[in-house]
Amino acid sequence: xxxxxxxxxxxxxxxxxxxxxxxxxxxxxxxxxxxxxxxxxxxxxxxxxxxxxxxxxxxxxxxxxxxxxxxxxxxxxxxxxxxxxxxxxxxxxxxxxxxxxxxxx
Length: 105
Fold this sequence. Notes:
With 105 residues, the protein is an all-alpha fold. 77% of the residues lie in helices and 0% in strands. It has helices spanning 3-29, 34-40, 45-72, 80-86, 89-100.
């Protein structure tokens, strides 16, 4: 495995675990209030801007995954789509790059 692929893999693991640590800490502290967490996504203009930035980035990543996977026929890379939707861009993007850079053939 190349250093670049290993870096993508490490970033994917960090991108899955580090943000999830904070999400779970919030949910534990608020008694598991997912609606409360979602309401905070638009708590002020700064957070709304970050939320929109992530939504737009996730949409672009998903479209890129679909288009690129179809051309390269690297179907396993499609796993990055649910990774992005259910965990986040910080996991989905490095995971996709890790899968995309594997030898196909």
